[in-house]
Amino acid sequence: MIARLGDGLPLCEGTDVEKSNDLDVCKRQAKTLIRKLGNTNRPEPKLSYESGPFLVHYMIEGSVVYVVVCDRKYPKKLAFKYLDEIRQEFENLYRGQVDTVVRPYAFIKFDTFIQKTRKLYMDTRAQRNMMKLSEELSEVQQIMTRNIQEVLGQGEKLDHVSRLTSTLAQESSVYSKKAKKLSRQALIKKYTPLAVIVFILILVMLWRFW
Predict the structure, then answer these.
(1) Nearest CA-CA partner of 80 in 91, 70, 93
(2) What is the arithmetic mean of pLDDT over 170-190?
(3) How far is CA 129 from CA 14, 62, 97, 145, 156, in A?
(4) Stretch among 37-41, 51-55, 62-66, 111-115 having the lowest mean pLDDT
(5) What whole-number distance in Å separates Cα of residue 121 and Cα of residue 168?
(6) Alpha-carbon distance 97 to 94, whole Å?
(7) The model's pTM
(8) Taking every pair of C-alpha atoms in the chain, what is the biggest distance, in angstroms?
(9) What pLDDT is stored for residue 109 in this prediction?
(10) Average pLDDT of 82-90?
(11) Which single residue of 35, 168, 180, 192 could bond 8 by disulfide (Cβ 3.0 to 4.6 Å)?
């Protein structure tokens, strides 16, 4: 993901290679993180956050924040190398346009470069990636890793409670409808024999007095 730091406006986002509920949750958390960074005085220029089975790495350069979600096992060095490569190309193409755009995903065409670069970094055993891993990157080693709940805090918890409340309300509504349906079925089952008997009696009486 690439976003404007000040207001969290999304500028571009790479297409997901895989889909999962955990990944969707992590991406929502990453977007919340981006918005919070814009409201933070002097945020850390580079940081990593734990989120379930993933790590969220971000890099801030100027008025732009670059974010990538990786599996926990993926090397941090490569993740920040990837972000730096994305940053360099994005700045070369759009350096003077970031502060003037008003619509989300104004640079969606940049996704082509993101996809191409991501493929190069997918295999950690590829020669180019092994060479990058062997480079001395003391700066990356000093980048802290925190739990994403620390920064999302109460806001994310309230969102979670809100989603749970909404889910419970929906389930309650479904249960109520099923209960009413079962109640109707029970009444029908209970009074159907009686209705049949009354109907037969009426027919007999009509037949006798016809």
Answers:
(1) 70
(2) 62
(3) 20, 27, 32, 22, 35
(4) 37-41
(5) 42
(6) 5
(7) 0.66
(8) 109
(9) 92
(10) 94
(11) 35
Q: What is the pLDDT of residue 9?
A: 92
173 has a pLDDT exceeding 70? no
Which has more confidence, 191 or 86? 86
Q: If DSSP states are collapsed to H, E and C, what string results for the chain?
A: CEEECCCCCEEECCCCCCCCHHHHHHHHHHHHHHHHHHCCCCCCCEEEEEECCEEEEEEEECCEEEEEEEECCCCHHHHHHHHHHHHHHHHHHHCCCCCCCCCCCCCHHHHHHHHHHHHHHHCCCCHHHHHHHHCCCHHHHCCCEEEHHHHHHHHHHHHHHHHHHHHHHHHHHHHHHHHHHHHHHHHHHHHHHHHHHHHHHHHHHHHHCC
CA angle, 73 then 79 then 82, to 5°: 145
pLDDT tens, 109-119?
Answer: 999 999 999 88
- What is the rounded CA–CA span in Å between residue 163 and residue 210? 68
Question: Which tens digit of pLDDT belongs to each residue from 132-154?
Answer: 666 655 555 555 666 666 656 64
- 61 Cα distance to chain centroid: 24
4 forms bridges with which residues in the sheet? 64
Instruction: Give the integer Cα–Cα distance in Å for 106 and 54.
Output: 27
Query: Could you give the CA distance from residue 19 to residue 56 in angstroms, rounded to a whole number?
Result: 16
The pair of structure tokens assigned to 164 is 């749970």
End-to-end CA distance of the chain: 86
